[in-house]
Amino acid sequence: MRRFIVGVMGQGEGADEPALAQARELGALIAGEGWIVLSGGRDSGVMRAVNQGAKQIPGSLTLGILPSSVVAPSPDIDIVVVTDMHNARNNINVLSSDVVVACGPAGAGTASEIALALKAEKPVILLSPDAEAKALFLKLGQGRVYISDTPVETIAVIKTLVTI
């Protein structure tokens, strides 16, 4: 049986501490459910934090989709996939995920992943989005965008969306 994959997207450089703390907690909660954590794989920001959180859970599995061979992966990644596709790897991130969670304020890379997820008809959960991102993606999402305020609430939303 294939394991469920939760893609967690968020800022690398410039991620604020509340987003990082939520990403760490979210990573642990995802791993605690026995789900795979997929991220952009870099050793920065939300990508680093979600994997740090996941690795607090014995038996967790983390998957990092790296943009190029010259980018250092997060040390908490179990499986590193080097694409050498740079930003085009966002499509791999999204299409390989069963659900996409955008953690914290959305930078351009995260916004592109949210948009790709919507085009692929994947459910998207915005965890603590700013007002502008919330308004934009709710409008574009046509009922496939959900809002959560906490990592615990995010897990509850995922459970309502899918049969695992």
Automatic annotation (TrEMBL):
<dbReference type="InterPro" id="IPR041164">
    <property type="entry name" value="LDcluster4"/>
</dbReference>
<dbReference type="Pfam" id="PF18306">
    <property type="entry name" value="LDcluster4"/>
</dbReference>
<dbReference type="GO" id="GO:0005829">
    <property type="term" value="C:cytosol"/>
</dbReference>
<dbReference type="InterPro" id="IPR052341">
    <property type="entry name" value="LOG_family_nucleotidases"/>
</dbReference>
<protein>
    <submittedName>
        <fullName>Cytochrome</fullName>
    </submittedName>
</protein>
